[in-house]
Amino acid sequence: MKLNRHQKAGVVILILFVAFVLFSELSVSKTEINNWENPLYWNKYPKKANPVWFSIFREQVPTTVLSPSEASKVGEEYYLFTYVYVHRYSRPPNNIVFDRIDPGYYIIEITRPDGIKIRIYDDELKEGVNLNTEPKMSMQIFSAMREQLNLKEEDRVILTPMKILFAKDVNFATLEGAYKIEVLCNCDKPPQVIVQGEAYGLLGTDNYGRDIWVGFVKSMRNTLYLALVTSVIIVVLGVLIGSISGYFDNELSKVVTFLLEVLTALPVLPILIVITWVISTQGMGEKVSVPPLKFMLLLAFLLMGKFAKTIRTITIKEKAKEYIMVEVSLGASGVYILRRHIGPVILEHALRHFTFLMPRIVALISLFGFFGMIPGTNWGSFMIEAMEQGALYGSKWWWILSPGAAMAFLSLGFTLLALSPSYEEEGIEAWLS
Amino acid sequence: MKFPYKTVARLFGIYICVLIIITTTAGLANGKLVKMEAEQDVITLQFRNPAFYELLRENATKENKTVVQYYHEKLVEAKGLNTNVFIRGIQLLKQSWDELKMAKNVRLGRAVLITLGVLLFSLLLILCISITVGMKIATKSSFLNFIESLARFFNGIPSWWIAVLFVFIFAIKYNIFPASGLMSMPPEDGFGLALDILKHLILPIATIVSVFVWEFIAIVARETQKEFEEVYIITEIAKGVPNAVIYWKHILKNIGITLSSFTAQKFGEMLTDYLVLDAFFHFKVWACC
């Protein structure tokens, strides 16, 4: 099959889209995806952070997850883990978080680039801790830097521990350079040290500190999965029902045709919403859940009417052609005719219809999600969360644009792919019907 | 001409079936509502009225049922609900209609008026643009292909996202139009009020128009193309009849039939999109639903 210029562009766009989907899937961990709806998981990440690529255009301190550069055993039970954080920005980071803590005794020391060493913690630790909320740490920093920065008692309330820790002089200019963080503990594994900045992740973070990119990937996965399977079901059901009811002229096919017309006349949206709610399960304090397969079958069943009717019409037209009538008179069976002669014609139409159907179902699913009509994370629910968290009025355009841009890209790919010469001849009516 | 009894009977049959499906769906919803109510009541009774719960449990055990099953049956009896799912659907639809009439936050007449107003205004704009542009590009196949591609492209974009984009650009970034609501607060008087409402409706109308206009243009262009191939039009052109007359007298009249059936077909989709935009722009005309 030879592709024209538009179709080639469509194929390239769709390949790029698939590559993007694969890259996104690989860029997030399963744990992050599973914990997207669990705000507790994200409490160690910076809240309302901008995307990390913002640092290219304007100065934004990125969030850095540190790994120990050195690990050595001290005595019988203790380990010393050393982390190095290089700060090259004119503003200090927002916080330092010590996470994935093994319960035990911890001594944490920070050595500034100017050589000042501050013991910020010397006590038992059972869970994660951070500089901004742990009073012992802020007290240690304040005491250690009091003389150097000429701090007054009221500065304890006014200045954040991070501002003091990263201050160069009495004017509080930021001290750039390598900060060494040493953790001595009777633990088996090193804690995770996160230096929280103003930027994190490809799409920043939301009000709970959740990585928006993770939400985008999760919603993309669900939306595309639902749309793809539903489109395939519609095409398969439509081809089977339409061709059989069109070819065999008996009472059963008349009933099927009548039912297809009923399906076409149904108000899909309200019925889908109500039946989805009826088949959903919900316990006390539990989330609403709908079995995806049931939902896809329901959606496919409600939407296949028009397509099955078109296939039926094509089958009737093909069946009336002379060469097929000759084949029938020669004794060819109905199944043979359908498979050998009518099948290829129907298949071509079905494939073309698929390119129209897939982006439409994606849009439809995101519409349901936008109004909370279907449970689970999808591009619609992702978007409504963005709106609820003020992304629209807070000018967080990357959050607002991302799902729509992905949908537009997918739609463009399928649009160009469908622009075959035969489509140009038949025109819009071919697929509008 | 013979009256098409068969077609009318078929249509009647189709819409009777649609009605049965809608009512049955309502019946299923009613069944679930009562079941959920029974489950919640039993949990509440367990803590608030343990004695009554014990009584229920004893009676349920006697009939070899769970407490929820037993309470559910009693609740259905007490509410006077029928066990037949179809009749139960009718009961729910009737109850919903009564509640809609009683609802204080929905003025039905106003809601219908605003909905129809927005839809008809959008439709009028769409028809004007599609007739003007569609007839112009009918003879230019590259333009027509481009418009048809746009129609397909917009088919895969949800209307709410276009609305978000418009609000972001025209309301937030440039502050030209209001982002939400039907009118400013406090409301203005007279002509000022009409202008204010119009200003608030521009973005929703623009959204509906930008989603649907491409399909309409493409339909008009294709139909115009077909008309130009008709012998009587070729004859008219050969006679030297001006193009404007041909467009007005013949083409517009003939494509009107296709256009009106297409408009009727698209009206349902536009109504769905309007309900979406109603919620997005906080018109709240259908607030209860």
Can you give me a brief rundown of this structure?
The complex is a heterodimer of chains A (about 425) and B (about 290). Chain A has about 425 residues and is of the alpha+beta class. Chain A has helices at about 5-25, 30-35, 55, 135-150, 155-160, 160-165, 210-245, 250-265, 270-280, 290-320, 320-330, 335-370, 380-390, 395-415, 420-425, 430, and strands at about 65, 70-75, 80-85, 95-100, 105-110, 115-125, 130, 175-185, 190-195.
Describe the SSE topology:
The complex is a heterodimer of chains A (433) and B (289).
Chain A: H1 5-27, H2 30-34, H3 54-57, E1 64-66, E2 70-74, E3 78-87, E4 95-99, E5 104-111, E6 117-125, E7 129-130, H4 135-149, H5 155-158, H6 161-165, E8 177-185, E9 192-196, H7 212-247, H8 251-265, H9 268-279, H10 292-319, H11 322-329, H12 334-370, H13 379-388, H14 397-417, H15 421-426, H16 428-432
Helix pairs in contact in A: 1-14, 7-8, 7-10, 7-12, 7-13, 8-10, 9-10, 10-12, 12-13, 12-14, 13-14
Chain B: H1 5-48, H2 50-62, H3 67-78, H4 85-102, H5 108-137, H6 141-155, H7 159-173, H8 190-228, H9 231-239, H10 243-280
What this model shows, in words?
The complex is a heterodimer of chains A (433) and B (289). Chain A is of the alpha+beta class and 433 residues long. Helices cover 54% and strands 13% of the residues of chain A. Chain A has 16 helices and 9 strands. In chain A, the strands form 2 sheets. Chain A has a 5-stranded antiparallel sheet with strand order 2-3-8-5-6. In chain A, helix 7 (212-247) runs antiparallel to helix 8. The radius of gyration of chain A is 31 Å and the shape is elongated. Chain A starts with a helix and ends with a helix. With 289 residues, chain B is mostly helical. Chain B folds into 2 domains: 5-102, no CATH class; 108-281, no CATH class. Chain B is built from 10 helices and no strands. Chain B has helices spanning 5-48, 50-62, 67-78, 85-102, 108-137, 141-155, 159-173, 190-228, 231-239, 243-280. Chains A and B meet through helix 8, helix 9, helix 12, helix 13 and helix 14 of A and helix 1, helix 6, helix 7, helix 8 and helix 10 of B.
